[in-house]
Write a structure and sequence with these properties.
The chain is an alpha/beta fold. It has 2 domains: 4-132, Rossmann fold (3-Layer(aba) Sandwich); 149-211, Arc Repressor Mutant, subunit A (Orthogonal Bundle). It is built from 10 helices and 6 strands, in the order βαβαβαβαβαβααααα. The protein has helices at 13-24, 38-47, 64-74, 89-98, 109-121, 129-146, 157-167, 172-179, 183-197, 202-211; strands spanning 4-9, 29-35, 52-55, 79-84, 102-105, 126-127.
């Protein structure tokens, strides 16, 4: 059987080498290339097609989330596992909305890396246990707030369009260009959306969008 081919992308050389050592101890896996930033990763993917990219969020030149978005546009079947120190749930929601198949905290890598990879290879999403519990609570709260709404939710068609683009990481200026409306109108829609959903942050909007399959 052909090995499962992985590219590592992390700007910390020693950490990257440590992860490579862990992976090389797992039968059937092969690390075929390494990148120290997002731009290097994009260039590598032009030359080779791995089965999975294990990717950090905080990297120079091109951040992990942006690199992932670019990669998924060109290679939609590419599996991406985020491996990061960030416990901030907003990063988690951004990663999921950008197409990540898994989100593993670096502190869990030594014990959970193999399980995370196996989970993704089996067609499921992996999230580090600490964040998974919080995610479950978030989605329950969102569901309870929205379950009495109409089948299409409390938002208008235009508001759903704006919400989808917000969840995809687009700026108000970008949304205005895509929808052919002014930035001021975008901000007005955003304000209405947050009020209707009782949202306090962009992370809340992304969570709602994921839960209601707008993205």
């Amino acid at each position: 059987m052909a090995p499962y081919r992985i590219v590592l992308a992390d700007d910390h050389t020693l950490f990257r080498q440590g992860v490579r050592k862990l992976l090389e101890e797992i039968p059937g896996l092969e690390v075929i290339e390494e990148a120290s930033n997002g731009i290097e990763l994009i260039e590598i993917l032009k030359e080779i097609t791995p089965d999975m990219v294990i990717l950090d969020i905080s990297m120079p030149n091109l951040r992990g989330i942006e690199a992932m978005r670019e990669s998924k546009k060109k290679y939609p079947d590419l599996q991406i596992l985020i491996l990061t120190m960030h416990k901030n749930r907003e990063y988690l929601y951004q990663a999921i909305s950008a197409g990540a198949a898994g989100y593993l905290l670096k502190e869990d890598a030594d014990t959970d890396l193999r399980y995370a990879i196996d989970t993704i290879r089996n067609g499921k999403t992996y999230i580090s246990p600490l964040l998974a519990e919080e995610l479950k609570d978030d989605l329950v709260n969102i569901y309870q707030r929205s379950r009495s709404a109409s089948p299409f939710g409390p938002l208008t068609t235009r508001e759903r369009e704006v919400l989808k683009l917000i969840a995809e990481g687009k700026s108000s200026k970008d949304i205005g260009v895509i929808l052919h409306i002014s930035v001021r109108t975008v901000q007005h829609h955003r304000s209405n959306i947050m009020e209707k959903l009782s949202a306090k942050s962009t992370a809340d909007l992304v969570k709602y969008a994921i839960n209601n399959r707008y993205i």
